[in-house]
Amino acid sequence: MSANEDQEMELEALRSIYEGDESFRELSPVSFQYRIGENGDPKAFLIEISWTETYPQTPPIISMNAFFNNTISSAVKQSILAKLQEAVEVNLGTAMTYTLFEYAKDNKEQFMENHQPVNSTIPISSIISVETPNTAPSSKKKEKKEHLSKAQKRKLADKTDHKGELPRGWNWVDVVKHLSKTGSKDDE
């Protein structure tokens, strides 16, 4: 069978296996996400698998760069990806997306045993405003971090796509205000 036929068969199988599973997301016919762990579980993580043109004869691209994983340290992510890569090598040449997702589910506790949540939340104000460089010499004082409530964090996460980027046009109100101010000067 050709790679495309294998991919079509695996795509049908994945759709039927994960039908109704809220943890599974088909981003495109060759790219899938699966949340390992329940919503609200501090040790939950998201795996994204993308097929190459010649998959399953060549390894798929496995990523943990989703915004959902922003509290997981890069060392833990690298460890998980290394273990998944070992599973890829064992299954090379066969349909393995389901196998990789199930392997991650079965070994979640082992994968996350060294997990210490990393607070990488960015306050909304620093995303929207342009920061001015601090010309004063830096003092030894620790700057207080703005802590967001759960609702504020959820609202911030809802504004971004699955990769943590703001959607196109998120600041259209600011743009319209700016244009209306600059447009009135031109009319004079």
Summarize the structure.
The protein is α+β, with helices and mostly antiparallel strands and 188 residues long.
Describe the 3D structure.
Residues 129-167 are annotated as: Disordered. Pfam families: RWD. It comes from Ailuropoda melanoleuca (Giant panda). This is RWD domain containing 4. Residues 120-139 have low confidence and may be disordered. This protein has helices at residues 3-17, 74-91, 97-106, 108-111, 124-128, 150-159, 172-187; strands at residues 24-28, 31-36, 45-50, 61-63. The chain is built from 7 helices and 4 strands, in the order H-E-E-E-E-H-H-H-H-H-H. Strands 1-2-3-4 form a 4-stranded antiparallel sheet, covered by helices on one side. It has a domain at 3-112: Ubiquitin Conjugating Enzyme. The chain is of the alpha+beta class and 188 residues long.
Secondary structure: elements and pairs:
Layout: H1 3-17, E1 24-28, E2 31-36, E3 45-50, E4 61-63, H2 74-91, H3 97-106, H4 108-111, H5 124-128, H6 150-159, H7 172-187
Antiparallel strand pairs: 1-2, 2-3, 3-4
